[in-house]
Amino acid sequence: MAQTHHYLFDTSGTYNDATGTTHFTNTTGSIDASGLINQCYKSTYDMMGGYNAYTSANPLPTSGAFSISFWLKAWGSASGGGTVFQWYNPSTLMTALTVVCNSSSSEVAVTQGASSRSVYSAFSTSVWHHLVFTCTGTAWTIYLDGTAVTMYGSNFTPSSDTYASGSNLRIIGNVSGGGFYIDDLRFHDAVVDSAEVTFLYNSGTGTQSDYSGGGGGSPSPVTSAFYKFQPFVEAAMEGIHNFGSHQLKVALTDTAPSAANAVLADISEISYTNCSTRNVVTSTSAQISGTYKLVCNELVLTASGAVGPFRYVVLYNDTAASDNLIAYYDYASSVTLANGDTFTIGFNGTTGVLTVT
């Protein structure tokens, strides 16, 4: 998946993606509300508007196959219908992503005139929900809180001029009696799959990441799937690892590791020429009431030139003679860092990197 634009809405008064490029102009909303993560955009009526023509060198991916993901919560009395995104040109109303709110349930819909492909799924509008709309160019899919939902109504194929360079992409976010809070808005120039949707949804549980090779930017802490290497268990029992004193390190690879991999030589590493130190600092290696926990400090990788692509972060013991492997993290999509970009590996300080009971 190539993520091309990422809007965190954390800096009051600016409407930039993670690269610092402005793609929207604000009308009546504001970035001053407490969001799911840091601040968010609080819409009233017209939220923001922008044209692909404004960003001809890096246009919003709203033609062909693309995906849009964001977190949303209604505010105020919030009843009736609210259009979140709308594409149109001066002569024809084109496509709208709509959330309809009422006292008992909400509808999420993709509409074009009288034709729509929509999902009717009861969910509270007073709490944050994650929505992903994917378009293949001929069909739509909607995900709610990480899960694909049943589609109702008719599907339509976006017309060729729906996303023409002169078409206006308006982000409105209004509902009768209130408006929307919107956070962590991302555009992708491909259809995200279910694993990537899960990653995006999980990333909103306390971290906000920009892990693409598209629009770039400096990622904040990222969550990911954690996998233990099978030979690690034997190595731990036979005295190869001493987490209280050994130096742990991360390796980066774009090739999926095998659970049977045992040592660093089994991993196809990328070049680290432009990457900062990959040494991991152990903060706690101790047991309480018979439960051992390894806790490591957050590690920030900084690029002094191109680094990547990589998708997997492998944790290994750099002190062990054979650089024995411990576990790896799958970030669901390949990452390429440009000069000055950072990539944060947020080891879980609560549950630890690993525990033994």
Name the CATH class of the largest domain: Mainly Beta
Main sheet summary? 15 strands, antiparallel
State the CATH topology of the largest domain: Jelly Rolls
Give the number of helices.
2
Mean pLDDT: 74
Number of individual domains: 2
Helix amount: under 10%
Structural class label: mainly beta
CATH architecture heading of the largest domain = Sandwich
Number of strands: 25
Shape: elongated
* Proportion of residues in β-strands: over 45%
Word description of this protein:
It is a single chain. The chain has 357 residues and is mainly beta. The chain has two domains: 203 residues, Jelly Rolls (Sandwich), CATH 2.60.120.200; 132 residues, no CATH class. The strands form four sheets. The protein has a 15-stranded antiparallel sheet that branches. The radius of gyration is 22 Å and the shape is elongated. About 9% of the residues have low confidence.
Features:
357 residues, mainly beta, Jelly Rolls, 2 domains, 5-stranded antiparallel β-sheet, 2 helices, 5% helix
Topology:
Layout: E1 3-7, E2 25-26, E3 30-34, E4 39-42, E5 48-51, E6 66-88, E7 93-101, E8 106-112, E9 115-121, E10 129-135, E11 140-144, E12 147-148, E13 152-153, E14 168-171, E15 174-188, H1 194-202, E16 225-228, H2 230-237, E17 248-253, E18 279-280, E19 282-288, E20 291-296, E21 299-302, E22 307-317, E23 325-337, E24 342-345, E25 354-356
Antiparallel strand pairs: 1-15, 2-5, 3-4, 4-15, 5-14, 6-7, 6-10, 6-14, 6-15, 7-8, 8-9, 9-13, 10-11, 11-12, 16-23, 17-18, 17-22, 19-20, 20-25, 21-24, 22-23
